[in-house]
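Milestone M4 deliverable, item 7.
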Amino acid sequence: MKILIKQAKIIAPSSPFNGQIKDIFISDGKIAAIADSINEKADEIIAKDRLCVSVGWMDMFADFADPGFEQKENIESGAKAAAAGGFTDVMLIPNSQPVVDNKAQVEYIIQKAKQVAVNIHPIGAISKKTDGNDLSEMYDMRQSGALAFSDGIKPVQNAGLILKALQYVKPFDGTIIQIPDDTSIGANGLMNEGIISTQMGLPGKPILAEELMVARDLKLARYADSKIHFTGISSPKSLEYIKRSKESGIKVSCSITPYQVYFCDEDLQGYDTNLKLNPPLRTKEDMLAMRKALLDGNIDCIASHHLPQHWDNKVCEFEYAKPGMIALETMFAVLMSCGLPAQDFVQMQTIHVRTIFGLPIPEIKEGETASLTLFIPDAEFIFEEKMIQSKSKNSPFIGKQFRGKVIGIINKSNIHLNN
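Output delivered:
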């Protein structure tokens, strides 16, 4: 298939074409030519005002619920949602049924993902069945293609187990991913502990639960001299700990979710179950501090925390609703609407995230395989339910006005364009 992209601004910080407006001709999945003007015949011509192109974006924490919970999502529908959001690469958490805690489950995901337009990277479980007791078959999973290790939405509470995992992955330069959350603190909390939770009469979860876990795991990472990544950081104090640890030489990186710089606990006053999340929405002051940290470059990358939930897990009383939202399709628009420059977003989601997990970084140059995301940073639109490609619709962003529109992706010799 031949594809011609007309007059697109290339946003690729490491490319000699960065900031230039060019035509790009793609033939059979490879970039055949980049020039000021190309007039080759093509099966598909992409020409839009203010169009930008970058290396394909990558997300490092999503749930495609496959196998075991296919009523929420599966590899195919998740890949469509990722492509609609501009992602050519997605890392999948291991919280399926059965859990991805052995090489057979890793190989199942890799085989099934060969049929979709997005590159899928399994995350292997740290513990067997993600129960936090015994180490899983981490080396076997790594050999079969697991990119990193995490218990996903069930953070490991056992300090000894995390230390063993950090030591175990060190010989092959692996990375441990944690949502920092001490579940023994505010165990029954439904939202952030504070004035709003008191006003709403809901049990709270203090931000201390996150900060304690960050402090603990940083010490363990220093002791093991191994790599740890914290995702879903929501506390400014946690960010301080991480920043100081980076400066002292600890191999640590961190990511935040899109919702943590867009919503705060005040938005929960309508009891919207789509905003029941873990980590929970913090105070407005915390949210603005996280947004400032993002704009100041103190956060390594964004993680979608795309967690599909079936209709009956959200259309119920707040107490019984399951946490999580779908987020891949709105991530770019949310970050653009919060004031993040497109160049910074691209830097984080193309270079930073791949560097953290040891993946090669695709390039925009002649002869390279095409792995591209097409987008218009200043395009305004209203996000509607009919746009959603995911099987689940649990998004608090439906009906919101955004700026920053994804046009589609070109990857694995496939083209996916949004309507």
